Amino acid sequence: MILVIAEKPSVARDIARVMKCKKTEGWYQSDTHRVTWALGHLVTLREPDEIDERYKKWRKEDLPILPEKIGTKVISKTRSQFSLVKKLMLDKDTEGLICATDAGREGELIFRLIYDQAGCKKPVQRLWISSLTDAAIREGFDALKPAEAYNGLYQSAICRAEADWLVGMNASRAYTLQYNALLSVGRVQTPTLAILVQREKEIRDFVPQEFFTLTADFSDYKGQWVDEGAKDGKTAHRIPDKKKAQEIRDLVKGKKGCVTKADTLPKKELPPQLFDLTSLQREANRVLGFTADKTLKTAQALYEKHKALTYPRTDSRYLPNDMIPRVNKALETLPEAYQEHVRALPRKDGKLPYSKRVFDDAKVTDHHAIIPTPQKADPDKFTADERALFDLVARRFIAAFYPAHEYDQTTVITTVEGQAFNSQGRVVTSLGWKAVVKEAAKTAKKDSEQEEQPLPGLKIGDERTVKSVALKQDATKPPAPHTDASLLMRMERPEMQVDDEELAETMKKAGLGTPATRAAIIERLIQVGYAARRGKVISATEKGEKLIALVPDEIASPVTTGKWEQALEQIVQGGMEPRRFMDGIRKLTAFLVNSALAEKKPVEFEKETRLRSGRVRAISAAKVLDGLSCPLCQSPVQETDKAFGCSAWKTGCGFTLWKNAFLRVKGPLLNEAIIRLLLTQGEARGSSGTFLFKDGQVSFILKDRQVPVLSVPIVYKKAETQPAEKKPAPKKTSPKKPKD
After folding, report:
1. What is the pLDDT at residue 31?
2. Which residue has the higher pLDDT, 211 or 511?
3. SS3 sequence of 412-453
4. For this structure, is 407 an active site residue?
5. Catalytic pick from 55, 179, 303, 311?
6. Is the pTM of this model over 0.70?
7. How many angstroms separate the CA atoms of 343 and 500, rounded?
8. Which of 75, 134, 242, 522 has its CA 20 to 30 A from that of 615?
9. CATH topology for the 2-143 domain
């Protein structure tokens, strides 16, 4: 009898169906096989106090905690399932096992910990599949490998788990004890937070630079003034001085210009590559507004429940060469809504075009790119979210085999009185892959604010008179706040802000976390109060910024942590000894504890309470803002986590400005810098608009608007300033039936 152990009941059910096993009490069985399941992790690493009782109480003198062996324990919540799996493992009729947990690092760890905890010594084979269709499961059972072939994967997994335990548990205890606040520090979450904090600092420190642009109207086309001698093409259209802009405008208005350049170049945009998990999460955030976590869960449902997508937790965007027949089958079985595009695929002798951008054995890792399975899917059985995500993957899959999008790019320079005006035009000559992926096609960022336009047939020497000249005032914009999409990109490519080219090259395969864990890391930062999500935007909180100010670069640097992830991958490939990696982690742990406890920095954290959901909520503690007086009674102004107000509120002063008062009109959160400008100068300008303080009200004027979009009084009135909390609707009760 062979025992098959899946990671989840749903996967066990699919395997059992293929193996023709019937359900019994707690497992499936045939004459030759039994199929059972874990419930995710059934076994985990022990807690410190389970290693030594003295660690139950958090004390500085016990740190760092560096046990020679951490050891494992059965998770109490799922103990009964572990007992069942153990019983089947050790049953005298069980001759061998098949590990059928998810084919990845975490799945390998789940099985190995159960196997070791149960004390099982029986031979194991590994099932490695990338989709849950019946055909894929049968193929997987025909290609079983000895478990020893995946020892490197297990060593990497246990090293990752123990490294996170050592660093997270020790550093979190050290900083929590030193600063008397709930402070979670992690090997991956802390450098991810550092990325958010760095962006917040860049936005806050940004000083807008005013500039002016000139657009000349030549009747049948327009051109934007450009400095042809500028070294930076991105800013060549900007005139920093208003007076100079006015002089150029007056110089060329009504004058005759001559076309001095008219170039048309054919250009191509190749089809986008297939999705791996991170690129799918980024695209779903950009196009559908999904968080990374929502994308992962939706893709997992399409993989497990509907068998419509291949394994989603992949970091490859390529397919192996031997998948060409399956690709053809998957295209043929796509829902009818896509068949028009499938039929239009360019084929040669009935075969799909072969491309190294799609098929490349050398670039397929443990799993290939995410594509639809050959099993016919019924989108009517999907949820709305599942339909939308499947549509993204299906269209990208088809588009990968389409020809390039082709167009003619025209650049015209019209010179008037020695001043050059640039005009850009584009004529599509072949729609190519954009016929399939119209709504998901990325909008190219222009080097300037000039938009492309239909241009008349122009040649050098053609003359036009300047009909009018529009002078526009503008300002440079701060970096955009992070979204799930941009944060995932930085987690995947931490070398993006590394100046050292050689280091950047080595970092290309060393991201923060893995595709399977990045969504959870982002959610964890929000859960512990280090980050907050507002719409698509994710930003660091004050607590998050304070923590990054405390911790050393050795734990905050995305580059350093990316190198650790690279080392874990080397363990998988057999290029690094696990002990060498763990020795480095132990040294880092001791360093972090010493760094935290060596000297207490002058940083105070608000008191917090942990909610039932596991999230942390601050118990508001007011901070007095030095040198800032209440406009009503001249008492000091104070700040809490939700508002700015008068410190004399207990004696009746009602000055209050809620931080979120202007969010509903696309304004920013009020911060100390804005409040200082308002109360001292009566005005605060930013990239999104202008705040004005006048006649007892604060008004917000959106950029390019003339009148305020919202004004709020500075005296607290709940209905006008602080959005009322939604109360749960009263439960509807059916009228009782009269008794007979």
Report:
1. 93
2. 211
3. EEEEECCEEEEEEEEEEEECHHHHCCCCCCCCCCCCCCCCCC
4. no
5. 311
6. yes
7. 48
8. 75
9. Rossmann fold (3.40.50)
